[in-house]
Amino acid sequence: MPKMKTHRGTAKRFRVTGSGKIMRAKAFRSHIKSKKSPKRVRNMRHETEVAKADEKVVARNLGLR
What we know:
The chain is of the alpha+beta class. The protein has helices spanning 8-13, 38-43, 52-62; strands at 14-16, 22-24, 48-49.
């Protein structure tokens, strides 16, 4: 059986921490920022953990589990 390939689109959007958590960027950040408060835009810079429900699919696409 051949090796499993990493899904390249997933690899560009997610990263795995040293402890094994899968991190993602926040959504709604690219445009229409005038109606969003500076605090809200600033808080979107930080990464957040992937939801438990999506973890299995993302991990498989990254070739982890």
